Amino acid sequence: MSAPAHDGTKNTPSIDVSTQEHTTQSPSKLLSRISDLERQLREQTALLALLTSSASSAQPTTSTPATLPSRRRSRSHSPRRVRPFDPSLYSTRHIALKFAYLGASYGGFEHANGNITPQPTIEEVLWKALRKARLISPAVEDGADSGFDVLWGVEERRRRYVKGGGPANGDGKVRLDLNWEGCQYSKCGRTDRGVSAFGQVIGIRVRSNRPVEKTATGEEEPVPKNGDSGMSNGTLEDDDMPAIDTDDLATDSCKKPFDPIRDELPYISLLNSILPPSIRILAWCPSPPPNFDARFSCRERRYKYFFTNPAFCPTPGALGMLRGDGKGAAEVREGWLDVEKMKLAAKKLEGLHDFRNLCKIDASKQMSSCVRRVTFADVVEWDGGARNVVEHHGLNQYGGSTAKTIVNGLTRMTAKETGPKVYTFCVHGTAFLWHQVRCMAAVLFLIGQGLEEPSIIDELLDIDKNPGRPMYEMADDAPLVLWDCIFPDKDPQPGEEMADSLDWLYAGDEATIPSLTTSSTKSDGKFGTGAVVDELWTQWRDAKMQEVLAGSLLDLAISQGDGSSFERGATRDGHSQSAGLRTQKVFDGSSRARIQGRYVSVMNKPKMDSLEVLNAKWLKSRNARRAQEEADARGRDSEETNAEGE
């Protein structure tokens, strides 16, 4: 092959393609010839790129080498060129994603177009990440936000987005509209503001690495290379060149078989590299059922509501052992919960019941029934909290199979429990009403404090006797977690727990590795820098250090002084306990107990209207608004007609 001339003009590289006697060459010589041709093509393409770049440069290059190494890249400093992304060139597939999020930084899961929340919703962040990864390509209308970056600040969001469904007012604001059209999108649970989820599930149609099918004319559509996101910097490398598989030489087609898992895009790692650390994709299902819908295919949702015991700082001395009304002794010190009574009350929630008095009614939904089935409810001591870090045989300090390791004849404990115990209210059900879990938790806390008896659950479930919900406060949102969503393929036997049938592939599973990387030095998506466990460990350790510091300071403050505070018979407001009634602390799941006056029992509180009355009132007001709008419209039409007549 002769070197190209360098006379300052643009030359077209040539390749020495000798074809003589190609029909008589042996297969080994033919393969060698093909490899040589590919090498020449790479070198000449790289040379052409360099010559093109040099010709457009302000400082022309004085000399150019005749040949270039095959791995040499262009040194052009021109701006990165982005080639338009054409989703029609890619195939798609319907998958399910399981993911987790810590809800403190979000305004709930669901986004409503036209409504701007102070904090971004989970759906908003997820939608932008899916679009940024080119996994979905929905149309973005004029005047709507087409960016990929999430705005987190309250004032920043207020300045950027226009509220309502109308167009922008010329002040630079845009609508925050999420368009899922064509994405076959479905969601399982719609958690409220501040609520977390560890097993949220969505179904969605995303871009795939599967080669596109042949067109009607029989020609093959262009197929993007593995992992191509539609972005290019204008340079070509070895990996950009078409490869020829020697196994295909004996066939009529060079098309390779596509493995739907090994050859697929690494969805977990791809999304986790874009999403904030508080949202982690945990698994994906490559083959959900053909009629899969994350909402309607889910047969059981499982929630956990976490709390400590004591629930809030205990009232010291003799005063803490008095009842809230100041009459008689309390069974437990104020601040501590009677867990056994709570367990008894939780079991009363199991079964098929009308939960209208244990939820929040949204009359706009016009629900005719609040009957739901709770398959399991209990209050259990929680032994979690990153225990697997020290107990798992693949992570613990001594490489043993349990958390207890025998060293020199002594039992070494790798973990030690300290401080107040943590409990969780666990509840499973086929479906839940709005704020149902938080209302149930609030009543259980009143029972645990001794302010109500377990029989209050029976009263609230008796809708014939109590058709209207008493106006009690529901529990705080922060400790609530949507723990898991179950998609069974058959009904469980009596006494059996419902089992999930979706074939989930979790981060780090062996089947997911080929699509992620072929190098053992890179992250497997679960462990390693930036992987799921590494990111969650970082968040846990930051929170743990805050716990250690605050807990140590708490212990120090309690131990200081002469101890008289524990014996003094003063109330919280400084008056003597002989003053009679005192303010009542009520635990609602938050970090600080709510202070109120004399406690009024749930059944003696004012009651809301019944479900039927609330529905009728909303419908009447809606019909009245519609009638008024129609009357106003008729009036405007009449005025316009009269004006035309005049």
UniProtKB/TrEMBL annotation:
Residues 626-639 have a biased composition (Basic and acidic residues). GO terms for cellular component: cytoplasm; nucleus. Residues 345-488 form the Pseudouridine synthase I TruA alpha/beta domain. It is an enzyme of class 5 (isomerase). Residues 10-29 have a biased composition (Polar residues). Its EC number is 5.4.99.45. GO terms for molecular function: RNA binding; tRNA pseudouridine(38/39) synthase activity. InterPro entries: PsdUridine_synth_cat_dom_sf (IPR020103), PsdUridine_synth_TruA (IPR001406), PsdUridine_synth_TruA_a/b_dom (IPR020097), PsdUridine_synth_TruA_C (IPR020095), TruA/RsuA/RluB/E/F_N (IPR020094). Pfam families: PseudoU_synth_1. Residues 70-82 have a biased composition (Basic residues). Residues 52-69 have a biased composition (Low complexity). The keyword tRNA processing applies. GO terms for biological process: mRNA pseudouridine synthesis; tRNA pseudouridine synthesis. Keywords: Isomerase, tRNA processing. This is Pseudouridine synthase deg1. Belongs to the tRNA pseudouridine synthase TruA family. Residues 1-36, 52-85, 210-234, 622-646 are annotated as: Disordered.
